[in-house]
Specification:
- It is a single chain.
- The chain has one domain.
- 41% of the residues lie in helices and 29% in strands.
- It is built from 2 helices and 2 strands.
- It has a two-stranded antiparallel sheet.
- 4% of the residues are buried.
């Protein structure tokens, strides 16, 4: 399990523990491609939409 804190423009927008093994395969692939912080930014910006 890894702890993630995403900061954007000096503000904390997300802080939580992430269990990589519990992620959906799509999110695992995204994590592997762009890294943890960017995957979480993509999730925050696009959750609930179909990409």
């Amino acid at each position: 399990m890894t702890s993630a804190i995403i900061k954007e423009k000096g503000h904390r927008i997300m802080e939580q523990d992430i269990d990589y093994e519990a992620l959906h395969p799509s999110y695992k692939a995204l994590w592997d491609l762009v890294g943890k912080e960017n995957a979480l930014k993509i999730y925050e910006n696009f959750k609930g939409t179909q990409l």
